[in-house]
Amino acid sequence: MKRRSFITLLGGAAAWPLAARAEPAVPVIGWLGSRSASESAALVDAFRSGLKEIGYVDGRNVAFAFRWADGQYDRLPAQAAELVSQHVSIIVATGGDPAAQAAKGATKTIPIVFVSGSDPVKVGLVASLNRPGGNITGIHVLLLGLGAKRLALLHELMPSAGAIGVLVNPQFPGAEAYLGDLREAAGSLGVQLRVRQAATEQEIEAAFSVLAEQRPGAVLIAPDPFFTVRRVQVVTAAARHGLPAMYELRDFAVVGGLISYGTSLADGYRKTGIYAGKVLKGVNPAELPIEQSTKFELVINLKTARTLGITVPQTLLVAADEVIE
Fold it and tell me: In Å, how far are 151, 162, 197, 221, 285 from 247, measured between CA atoms?
């Protein structure tokens, strides 16, 4: 059941001089992704759906050049430079801030449309939400701003948990800000946070082993494409150690995660496709306002809850957008 709405920030648009640059006969969309190709297929399809709404169909009147970082952010600058050297018509930066920052650092002329979970003004991507400025615009899917809400939902699910573990990637640009919000929320709830860092697959396993020894009442996985790419590993590690865990995206609950709360990425990527199509048609990205997604999904995996011996409160079941049996 889908009950949330999508809010659009209104603003003007002016022509972006695509014709002033050397354009290929068929526009080429340079896709710069922080995630991996295999686990992003549904999001690419959602993007293509939005693109089709504007009149562009892959293989007919538009083409793609894909670059995937597989959660390894240090690859992104070189990949962005490759797309610029190929003279793509537009760069679509996906999977969070690292891709958007890499694209912005690589070109000031090729238009950029991003989808990101951080406040694009606070992280320096754009000048303002209504008038981004420069050659960049995009969709803000509001992932990092939901830490307090996720912690509150996890506390409602596990009210006796006096301590909650947090798994965070220190290499993610928004990590410290996210932890700051969590610490403030934890103080209000009267719970302690036990933070563990992981930036490699081996460190994920080590972090869960330490958390298993510390025995927090539950674990919260910080938003990060690095963890999303490795969601099966993360969910499996939580299950192996018997740790109830809260995640950012439905993707985690689908593969066995206990509970997730976050923006509908499919909806955000469809909107990104619409924006990319508008830019290809000549809209100036500098004056195309940042669109903010507030379509959220609360997903609960009852099978996992039963395995962990957890009784999910009726209040959460009623509030859930999806319950996986």
Answer: 10, 19, 16, 5, 32
Containing 235, the helix (H) or strand (E) segment is helix 231-240
Q: Provide the pLDDT for residue 143.
A: 67
Domains of the chain: 18-142+264-295 (3.40.50.2300), 144-248 (3.40.50.2300)
What is the b/e burial string over 76-88, where b = at least 16 CB atoms within 10 angstroms of the residue's CB? Answer: bbebbeebbeeeb
How many C-beta atoms surround the C-beta of residue 171 within 10 A? 17
Q: What is the mean pLDDT of each run of 10 residues along the chain (325 residues)?
A: 37 42 76 90 95 95 95 93 97 91 96 88 87 92 80 94 94 83 91 95 96 94 88 96 94 95 89 96 92 87 96 96 94
Distance CA 205, CA 202 (A): 5
This prediction's pTM: 0.73
Angstrom distance (rounded) from CA 109 to CA 112: 9
Whether 36 contacts 195, CB under 8 Å:
no
User: What pLDDT, on a 0 to 100 scale, did the predictor assign at position 14?
Assistant: 41
Query: Cβ distance 282 to 18 under 8 Å?
Result: yes
DSSP string, 155-190: HHHSTT-SEEEEEE-TTSTTHHHHHHHHHHHHHHHT
CB 90 within 8 A of CB 27: yes
HSE-CB for 317 with a 13 A CA cutoff: 9
Answer yes or no: are the C-beta atoms of 94 and 114 closer than 8 Å.
yes
